[in-house]
Design a protein that fits this description.
By secondary structure, this protein is of the alpha/beta class. It has a single domain, classed as P-loop containing nucleotide triphosphate hydrolases (Rossmann fold, 3-Layer(aba) Sandwich), CATH 3.40.50. It contains 16 helices and 8 strands. Helix 1 runs antiparallel to helix 2. The longest helix is centred in the first third of the chain and has 26 residues.
């Protein structure tokens, strides 16, 4: 974790300079983390009841970024029946910190200063919108989000320590932190059913399965020809919004895209290999093809609901009926670039992920019948 931070410092200094605002923010990261962990410790004094909370039958939504996980997660949370984190909750997982910061957060929302990423980036994010629980691992400097939210993206080398989570020496410490954050939020909200979206944690699925023996996993997959260009386009727009592409430089951007592509390929390989080849995950993972949401929506939701073993309220059933109608006319709002813009040829992608294309083509043939 310290190793990752020093890579971040080096990346920020070499890309933006030691007099830049980004470098100053980077130097402030340890103080933010110290504040968070101090407040997490104080929770044991001021809110000890969270430790008695039990997490039962959690649901983890995983999948390559841009595969439909955000859509499914937000759909499940529309009626506010399940446990979920808003962006500011993820920034302050400590109950003590929330007490201290809630007033400031509410003022920012009231004054319209709560937009973190605008819609044109491809992922509209505000302090008061539901976001993915994967970000809780940021407080351990142990998520691939470190390379997207911070300038670690522009480090000259690799940061594999954020990729292969199931092999990490500190994996149990990270999952213990994550589990305690979930307990705190259940205590805070009173909602006991965890419905967590953890895209990048597909690479720590074994650790999650061990830590939550009654957990189930909804694995959403989509053609890599759709997810990878979309993911790289999202990164492109986010980086432009945060730093400005001219400030980053083409060499740093292309180095990042090459690395991000390689990590995306590893994601698919790891997930597809482990789901079908471990008893630990037997009968605990359901595969959902993205196109089923578009062309087979209601039966797909019914299948997922039965797998999860969760009863839907009448209000939730109504939401699903309404969404079924919307799916028929869905059109993507943001712009995705072609692979070539990121220095990647389609032939390379098809060769690297031939097993995924076989899986997608087989599923599309079934839908066409």
């Amino acid at each position: 974790m310290i190793k990752t931070y020093f890579k971040l410092v080096k990346a920020s200094a070499s890309t933006f300079g030691i007099l830049s605002a980004d470098f100053a923010k980077t130097l402030g990261v340890p103080f933010y983390l110290m504040f968070t962990h101090l407040c997490l410790f104080l929770d044991n004094i001021f809110f000890p009841g969270y430790k008695k909370v039990e997490i039962k039958n959690p649901i983890f939504i995983i999948g390559h970024p841009r595969s439909g996980t955000t859509f499914f997660h937000r759909l499940m949370l529309k009626t506010d029946e399940f446990n979920s984190f808003k962006a500011w909750h993820l920034q302050f997982p400590s109950l003590t910190a929330r007490k201290l910061m809630k007033g400031n957060v509410e003022r920012r929302i009231k004054n319209g200063k709560h937009v973190m990423f605008p819609p044109e980036t491809g992922h509209h994010t505000r302090l008061d919108t539901v976001e993915e629980e994967e970000q809780l691992f940021l407080h351990m400097t142990d998520s691939q989000f470190v390379s997207i939210i911070f300038s670690l993206a522009f480090y000259s080398g690799d940061f594999d320590e954020l990729l292969y989570n199931d092999s990490q020496a500190h994996r149990k410490a990270s999952i213990r932190h994550f589990k305690n954050c979930l307990k705190r939020h259940i205590y805070y909200t009173g909602k006991t059913q965890v419905m967590a979206r953890c895209n990048f944690s597909a690479m720590r699925i074994k650790t999650l399965a061990e830590a939550f023996p009654d957990a189930k996993f909804v694995y959403i997959y989509r053609s890599p020809l759709e997810t990878i260009p979309s993911h790289l386009s999202l990164n492109y727009h986010v980086f432009d919004y945060k730093w400005g592409l001219d400030n980053i430089g083409e060499e740093s951007m292309m180095r990042y895209f090459d690395r991000r592509y390689r990590y995306n390929v590893e994601f698919y390989k790891y997930m597809e290999n482990i789901v079908g080849n471990t008893d630990l995950l037997k009968d605990r993972v359901i595969d959902i093809f993205y196109d089923d949401f578009l062309f087979n929506f209601e039966p797909t939701i019914k299948r997922v609901r039965e797998f999860m073993g969760i009863e839907f309220s009448e209000e939730m059933e109504k939401v699903i009926e309404e969404q079924a109608e919307k799916q028929k006319s869905y059109k993507r709002k943001h712009k995705n670039y072609d692979l070539e813009k990121f220095g990647i040829k389609e032939e390379r992608l098809r060769k690297d992920l031939d097993f995924m294309f076989e899986k997608v083509e087989k599923k599309r043939a079934e839908l066409a019948k």
